């Protein structure tokens, strides 16, 4: 199954200068809980941002990097693909979370089965934005409010 997970501000912002423009420990814990033991597919910039934070790929998860750079080399154990269709074909039997960034979200939002969105109730300045969630395609099925943010789950509407 393919799911997408993202924290998105009220103005659609998801990043600024290759960093997350807020610090919400509960969201990091939620992300970890949802993705632990799963496959995390992300773009090269997101992968490099994680390396900048942690110094290594996300622990306890299989990391897959999607990049346009045919010469990109990642650390051992990290799979690298240069083609989204090929990546989806190779990963079809795994439990996959799309973890960013903006370009990857835009390419995959309507290819996945579920969206796990943390709605962050702020409007930070940023340079990276999440694509619009088309309410004709996606239906909210669960919401857990936390004041400054909400955890929200969307599934595709029946055709």
Give a verbal description of the structure.
The chain has 159 residues and is an alpha/beta fold. It has a single domain, classed as Dihydrofolate Reductase, subunit A (3-Layer(aba) Sandwich), CATH 3.40.430. Helix content is 23%, strand content 33%. It has four helices and ten strands; from the N terminus they run E-E-H-E-H-E-E-H-E-H-E-E-E-E. The strands form two sheets. Strands 5-4-3-6-1-7-10-9 form an eight-stranded mixed β-sheet, sandwiched between helices. Strands 2-8 form a two-stranded antiparallel sheet. Helix 2 (44-54) links the parallel strand 3 (39-43) and strand 4 (62-66). The radius of gyration is 15 Å and the shape is globular. The mean pLDDT is 96.
Number of strands: 10
As a percent range, the share of strand residues is: 25-35%
Mean pLDDT reading: 96
Radius of gyration: 15 Å
The level 1 CATH classification is: Alpha Beta
Largest sheet entry: 8 strands, mixed
- Based on secondary structure, the structural category is alpha/beta
CATH architecture: 3-Layer(aba) Sandwich
- The CATH superfamily appears as Dihydrofolate Reductase, subunit A
Number of domains: 1
Strand order, sheet with most strands: 5-4-3-6-1-7-10-9
Task: Supply database-style keywords.
two-stranded antiparallel ribbon; globular; 8-stranded mixed beta sheet; 10 strands; 159 residues; Dihydrofolate Reductase, subunit A; alpha/beta
Short description:
This protein is α/β, with parallel strands linked by helices. The chain has four helices and ten strands; from the N terminus they run E-E-H-E-H-E-E-H-E-H-E-E-E-E.
